[in-house]
Specification:
about 130 residues, alpha+beta, YaeB-like fold, 7 strands, about 15% helix, about 25% strand, globular
Length: about 130
């Protein structure tokens, strides 16, 4: 899999996972793919996130959330694992509890969060949700 930069040098996703026709995404940061430290996004629940990642199309994400969402996705994939995710304190990376135990959350803005699970070193059930 190779990465391709989108319009204006913004990162976009590329590639297809082997077997079973499932899609996997490698996020590239400004045209540079770090092969030894990227995380695969195996499944995306939010249609707007899917469009942003696959087509660099932000139409289904609120305009005030787009840039921060891109920054968070880039940091997630480039980190190589949850322990490598670094961002400002405002991202409030934490693992949820209760019926959502095992799900990770990052604050985008206000009540908006990017949530996901890590299974086998891959991001699954990636979602952008207003959960308060």
């Amino acid at each position: 899999m190779t990465g391709v930069s989108g319009a204006g040098g913004r990162p976009i996703a590329s590639g297809r996972a082997p077997g079973a026709g499932s899609t996997a995404y490698h996020w590239t940061s400004y045209g540079i793919t770090v092969h030894s430290h990227t995380v695969i996004i195996r499944s995306i629940r939010h249609r707007g996130l899917r469009r942003l990642i696959e087509d660099d199309d932000p139409r289904e994400i609120r305009g005030d959330l787009v840039n921060r969402t891109r920054n968070i996705l880039t940091a997630l994939v480039a980190a190589g694992g949850i322990e490598g995710v670094r961002g400002p304190p405002g991202w409030r990376l934490h693992q949820l509890t209760g019926d959502r135990a095992g799900t990770w959350s990052l604050s985008v803005s206000g009540n908006w969060r990017i949530t996901f699970e890590i299974v086998g070193g891959e991001i699954v059930n990636l979602d952008l949700e207003d959960y308060h």
